[in-house]
Amino acid sequence: MDIREIARRAKVSTATVSRAINHVPTVDPQLAKRVWKVVDELGYYPNTQARALVSGRSRIFGLIVSEITNPFFPEIVQTFENLAVENNYEILLTSTVHDPKRMESSVRRMIERRVDGVAILTFGMEDTLLDHLRFRKVPLVFVDVGPNAPGIVNIRINYLNGIRQAVQHLAALRHTRIAFISGPSNLKSAIARRAAFKTSMTEIGLPADLIIEGNHQMDGGMKALLEFNGLSNPPTAVLCSNDMTAIGVMREAYDQDIKIPNDLSVIGFDDIRLAEFTIPPLTTVQMSQMELAKIAFQALLNEVQRESPSLERSEHELTTTLVLRRSTGLAPPGRHTAKPRKGTAGSRIP
Amino acid sequence: MDIREIARRAKVSTATVSRAINHVPTVDPQLAKRVWKVVDELGYYPNTQARALVSGRSRIFGLIVSEITNPFFPEIVQTFENLAVENNYEILLTSTVHDPKRMESSVRRMIERRVDGVAILTFGMEDTLLDHLRFRKVPLVFVDVGPNAPGIVNIRINYLNGIRQAVQHLAALRHTRIAFISGPSNLKSAIARRAAFKTSMTEIGLPADLIIEGNHQMDGGMKALLEFNGLSNPPTAVLCSNDMTAIGVMREAYDQDIKIPNDLSVIGFDDIRLAEFTIPPLTTVQMSQMELAKIAFQALLNEVQRESPSLERSEHELTTTLVLRRSTGLAPPGRHTAKPRKGTAGSRIP
DNA sequence: ATGAAAGCGCTAACAG
DNA sequence: CTGTTAGCGCTTTCAT
């Protein structure tokens, strides 16, 4: 069942069918009605492959993420899809799973399917790979910082705003020993967060000397808390470079029978959906995944709809902000002496 | 840059280029080498739209889920994508977000993009919608139960196995007051789980009288626990129809200062990634999302690679199994008198 | 083993 | 306003 079949049955030419389907205003309403009638009767759906082939636009946007199982991404993917549906786009989702081969195949898949634009929401991607996309003039959107070139859209994150709020929130609760568990030191976004922490502490005259490098995973948070507690004067509050790290801290605290927020305050970063469901609910710096997805999608759409290619790279800013839940509280009294802490909890069943 | 450009530069016909690229064995190795050289030099990538148009196969599998933000799905999507990459397929991911309009658009999108098969991992989809797919002879895979028709693959879940293990685990820990929080009663999968619970209880001579209907969300679990605690003889263990419900129970227990597992044992269902990260880590019935994705993908691939259309619907079974973590323990002593429970925890800061 | 050419389903000139 | 027709980039007979 193709456009000719429709044309035959509606007794018009294929061109008219095409025009009717695409709502070209010049077509006679009578004919249009006839065409639509047949279309509906036969359950005809245009073949997008053929459309793409002739029009040169696939109406597909690529979306490259690190891994979908990373709780940071589902919300983004969902928002991106919602916008795609609204705008008659499809989304080609690929994940790099931190594997160079998969990064390569992601780019290859984007090119093979002739996507109209790509949002790259993964951190750390070879520049040479991106050149393939750039070479083909595929509109690109980056987070944090991408190559400095025309037609490339950049979403800059204001990490400082939220992290400053977090630090000041803790200070207001009379914490002075505030620690930071960073992300991997080869991640731009992690570096920026740590820098924002240092700045925020310095601003209010507190030393930013309690910093341990984590890995943005739960076990990194667990290990870091263990280390902090080995100190003669452990922190009373811990700010984490992402939520998974904070969850690790809370888990380790649970195992050690350290009460949150009474004995220890914890703040995360990202505000993944899960943060609402932890025990206690996690106070965290929100980097709105919905906002991020919206900005990225809209930027792509602008780029595609623009007649003349944009000559300058554009910038967008996404700010971060603290959301209070229940993992932070007043600094424990007598905080300058290490509180005696129990060992691991007793044996469990089974 | 197209196949003709390659042909010109390699001084062969487009047919030969096509054959070389597709590794047709009859092509002269010399020529093939020449073709590949040019392909690599120019960074040529075949246009999949054109390929699909002429071959009639898009090499795209559709994947319909309820919502990507439901923690049950990311693992499935990731596994599905990994398999797709291995097999040179692309995946068209759509979510219904429980909206009839979106269900319709999901089906429409699948048809427009001419997918080679669809895995429907969402519960509750109009049969009339599916008819559009069936009509076009698109291979379909369902979970639980789909329409009984040729060429439709069915993945049947053995709910009983895991739920029986859960019930018996609790019984072994001397629980006799075991409650169940079900899912929405219009969901086939939820009904099946509740039935499995009843069967399992009856088998060992325990009454299955403590059942409250939840909603597969956190708040449903919270409310249910509240209700149970209003009883003169509240349960000492709660089995939940899914993990989010269990997380709600644990959250409410935390608010009520009920200790898990000391005062109350909790078991979930699904074993979403998050279950490992709760406090305490959640004992739950695992329904392997990886397995499910693998079965679904493989079934689709089989269907596509088969020469003659299969005449009978095929069945696959996925079993469930209990995974022990730390949310279950011995029934509290003197369980037949309601343990006095404190009210909500004191005021919190901020 | 290779090439010429038809055609997949659609859109967009161009003609009328 | 409508129809005719030339391709979009590729695969695949059918000849050679």
* H/E topology pattern of chain A: HHHHEHEHEHEEHEHEHEHEEHEE
Per the CATH scheme, the topology name of the largest domain in chain A is Rossmann fold
- Name the biggest interface: A-B, 62 and 62 residues
Task: Give the CATH level 1 class of the largest domain in chain A.
Answer: Alpha Beta
State the shape of chain A: elongated
Number of strands of chain A: 12
Q: What is the level-2 CATH architecture name of the largest domain in chain A?
A: 3-Layer(aba) Sandwich
Count every helix of chain A, treating DSSP H or I runs of 4 or more residues as helices. Answer: 12
Ranges of chain A where pLDDT stays below 50 over 5 or more residues in a row are 335-350
Distance between the termini of chain A: 62 Å
What name goes with the CATH superfamily of the largest domain in chain A? Response regulator
Radius of gyration of chain A: 26 Å
Average pLDDT for all residues of chain A: 91
List the helices and strands and how they pair.
The structure is a homodimer of 350-residue chains.
Chain A (H helix, E strand, L loop, with lengths): L2 H8 L3 H8 L7 H14 L5 H8 L4 E6 L8 H13 L3 E6 L4 H13 L4 E4 L6 H9 L4 E4 L8 E7 H14 L5 E5 L5 H16 L7 E3 L4 H13 L6 E4 L2 H13 L9 E6 L12 E4 L2 H17 L8 E6 L1 E3 L27
Parallel strand pairs in A: 1-2, 1-3, 3-4, 4-5, 5-11, 6-7, 6-8, 8-9, 9-10
Antiparallel strand pairs in A: 10-12
Helix pairs in contact in A: 1-2, 1-3, 2-3, 5-12, 6-7, 8-9, 10-11
The structure holds a DNA duplex (16 and 16 nucleotides).
